[in-house]
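Researcher: We're teaching a course module on how sequence relates to structure. For the next exercise, students receive a sequence and then see the predicted structure as tokens, so they can try to spot secondary structure elements on their own. Here is the exercise chain.
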Amino acid sequence: MVEYPRLDLVFRALGDSTRRGMLRQLAVRERTVGELAEPYRMSLASASKHVKTLERAGLVKRTVRGRTHFCRLNPQPLAKADGWLREYERLWDIRLARLEEMLRHPDNEDSDR
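Model: And here is the predicted structure for the students to work with:
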């Protein structure tokens, strides 16, 4: 069973292109908040807000070493979101296959569909 409140946080976090970019960076390797901020030319405070959103969604784990905050990707929430989306992918695959069949053979149209 998928935890929908957590999924809400995941999709909300993924709804921002900056956060998606940060996740792309973290998919390669662990990075500091400063490294995550650099491509966007944003302040550390702004980057930290994005990281907090990703943390709340469970997508990022942050550790502090001295004064430096390191972030790493936690892919499990993405897998859960992918599972939820795949349910709808199957539904649309079936519907599109039916449509394709109807378009290929319009004379065999079944009124029960």
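Model: If you want an answer key for the exercise: Residues 4-77 form a domain with the Arc Repressor Mutant, subunit A fold (CATH 1.10.10.10). The longest helix spans residues 76-104.
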